[in-house]
């Protein structure tokens, strides 16, 4: 009974409510939704099966090439906003920065392990960059610039994403030796770990030289 009481108290507290909302909102598969609405196709059954913008672009290029880039960009923006919106509301209502960082982490987890897709999902890059930008905008910008440059040169989305995350998070140790308000890089490292873990199949394909390029 004590455990049940704790769970009830937790999920009826403002922090607990935000944690639940962050995970559920993070789990909304915008790529899948846009693919069905605009492309009349289930992207989880094609390409890599991911709900992220890269797979949206790859799949729609074959079926609806005239809208592929636009829908991919829309997917990136929507995935990035998942965490941004919830964190912004939490900040407005005065939740602590520790709680806000936990919301950020749960939004990324929701995207990568969506409760609406039997706990499958995307790779977490756009959502991760979005939530990090709410706390460390310069590091997020560095990651985005790295992603753009590497992507333009190599034309391989996974390499660009991994380098962007690695350089962006690594730069935080130089720019902010102690992360403001929480004085630890733990949330950043966990988010980076989740993203790298979700990219293991891509890393394997890269080693085997079988990873597809985005032309």
UniProtKB/TrEMBL annotation:
Annotated EC: 2.3.1.275
Top-level EC class as recorded in UniProt: transferase
Bilayer topology term: Multi-pass membrane protein
Domain of life: Bacteria
Keyword Chloroplast belongs to the record: no
Keywords carried by this UniProt record: Acyltransferase, Cell membrane, Lipid biosynthesis, Lipid metabolism, Membrane, Phospholipid biosynthesis, Phospholipid metabolism, Transferase, Transmembrane, Transmembrane helix
Pfam family, one: G3P_acyltransf
InterPro entries per record: G3P_acylTferase_PlsY
The reaction(s) this protein catalyses: an acyl phosphate + sn-glycerol 3-phosphate = a 1-acyl-sn-glycero-3-phosphate + phosphate
Subcellular location: Cell membrane
Transmembrane regions listed in the UniProt entry: 16-35, 71-93, 129-150, 156-175, 187-207
One GO MF term: glycerol-3-phosphate O-acyltransferase activity
Pathway where it operates: Lipid metabolism; phospholipid metabolism
Its biological purpose: Catalyzes the transfer of an acyl group from acyl-phosphate (acyl-PO(4)) to glycerol-3-phosphate (G3P) to form lysophosphatidic acid (LPA). This enzyme utilizes acyl-phosphate as fatty acyl donor, but not acyl-CoA or acyl-ACP.
Family: Belongs to the PlsY family.
Quaternary structure annotation from Swiss-Prot or TrEMBL: Probably interacts with PlsX.
Protein name as annotated: Glycerol-3-phosphate acyltransferase
Species in which this protein is naturally found: Helicobacter ibis
Record gene name: plsY
